[in-house]
């Protein structure tokens, strides 16, 4: 058995391998793997690969593709980890509480800063114009969702957390459907005149993504992503309570997933599923799919003990933040050309595209495997 396999097996006693593997599987698709289906379609001409490639694109506006699931799944899993570990802090000393608060604030600020770094900060370089920064980001949203969920877990009972979650769900629905300011809002959910667009254009500092009317990681839609994290907290707490009765836990995860997914699509006619606005129906659909994927990984890995195939994904999942930053800050294509250009250049277009992606993924995974072997984990 390799050192990597031994270390993962040892860590399994402390954390569920299925969660790390699912997190890694989620990250796998934004490291470059989303292009595999397009390359395979060029090679084979099979319509299946064309359909799969279309699922690797974000929805134009209303609707849902599996690529839309990547971000909310990651947020839900951060909530699951919180639900498995976090407890109320009322019984802690003042010093222990302050340490908790410092960690939470540091994590939030660091993720916001790293998000700006991922966005390449100032596109115009230094001297800096603070009006040219895109302050909102994927990492910033992850940090904010986790921070709010942590504060609720630390300070409120489970029943109160449920009430707050329901209030956010209903409140955000009401805001999207009924609140209007001038031409914005009042059930207008288009890309130009939603209430989210008014909030981003009026209150969001810096620039918006591609100067769109509403930023995909804008201010108001944080309410939706906070819901994904809170649902993850409840699922994590359920997993903690029912870990000794795996069959019951699996059944409950499947029920939660199916009910949430069904409810999301049933309510779609009243409030469309929309990723950019992160509508409450989008929350239901993504929480449904996320829970079903978690149930599948839990059954395969932790119940059936089929772990070999999951270990490469777990290695990604253990350093997910650092490799995500690497997709923006490192020129992986240059490294692929440097190492494998002589192999790739004689190939046809389709095969060249396919092997470029394979080599790109391999280089990233080898870096993560090296970090894992040396017990280097970049946690925020």
TrEMBL record:
> What's in the keyword line of the UniProt record?
Membrane, Transmembrane, Transmembrane helix
Regions that span the bilayer: 21-49, 69-92, 104-121, 133-155, 162-181, 219-236, 248-271, 277-301, 313-332, 352-372
KW NAD (keyword) present: no
Top-level division of the source organism's lineage: Bacteria
Presence of keyword Transcription? no
Per its record, how is this protein called by name? Answer: DUF5009 domain-containing protein
Give the species. Answer: Thalassotalea nanhaiensis
């Amino acid at each position: 058995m390799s050192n990597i396999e031994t270390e993962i097996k040892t860590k399994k006693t402390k954390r569920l391998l299925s969660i790390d593997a699912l997190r890694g599987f989620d990250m796998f698709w934004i490291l470059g793997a989303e292009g595999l289906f397009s390359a395979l379609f060029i090679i084979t001409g099979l319509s299946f690969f064309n359909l799969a490639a279309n699922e690797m694109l974000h929805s134009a506006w209303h609707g849902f593709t599996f690529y839309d699931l990547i971000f909310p799944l990651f947020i839900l899993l951060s909530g699951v980890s919180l639900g498995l570990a976090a407890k109320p802090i009322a019984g802690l000393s003042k010093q222990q509480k302050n340490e908790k608060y410092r960690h939470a604030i540091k994590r939030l600020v660091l993720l916001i800063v790293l998000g700006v770094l991922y966005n390449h900060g100032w596109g115009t370089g230094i001297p800096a114009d603070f009006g040219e920064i895109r302050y909102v980001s994927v990492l910033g949203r992850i940090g904010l969702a986790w921070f709010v969920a942590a504060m609720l877990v630390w300070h409120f009972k489970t029943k109160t957390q449920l009430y707050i979650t329901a209030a956010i769900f209903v409140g955000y629905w009401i805001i999207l459907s009924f609140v209007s300011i001038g031409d914005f809002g009042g059930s207008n959910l288009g890309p130009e005149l939603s209430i989210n667009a008014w909030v981003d254009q009026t209150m969001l500092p810096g620039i918006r993504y591609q100067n769109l009317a509403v930023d995909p990681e804008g201010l108001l839609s944080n309410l939706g992503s906070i819901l994904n994290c809170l649902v993850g907290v409840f699922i994590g707490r359920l997993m903690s309570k029912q870990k000794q009765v795996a069959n019951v836990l699996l059944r409950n995860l499947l029920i939660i997933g199916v009910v949430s997914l069904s409810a999301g699509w049933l309510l779609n006619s009243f409030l469309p599923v929309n990723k950019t606005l992160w509508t409450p129906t989008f929350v239901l659909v993504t929480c449904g799919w996320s829970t079903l994927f978690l149930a599948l990984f839990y059954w395969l890995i932790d119940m059936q003990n089929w772990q070999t195939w999951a270990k490469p994904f777990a290695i990604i999942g253990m350093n997910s933040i650092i490799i995500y930053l690497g997709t923006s800050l490192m020129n992986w294509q240059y490294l692929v050309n440097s190492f494998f250009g002589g192999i790739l250049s004689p190939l046809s277009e389709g095969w060249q595209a396919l092997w470029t992606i394979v080599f790109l993924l391999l280089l990233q995974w080898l870096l993560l495997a090296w970090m894992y072997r040396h017990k280097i984990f970049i946690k925020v």
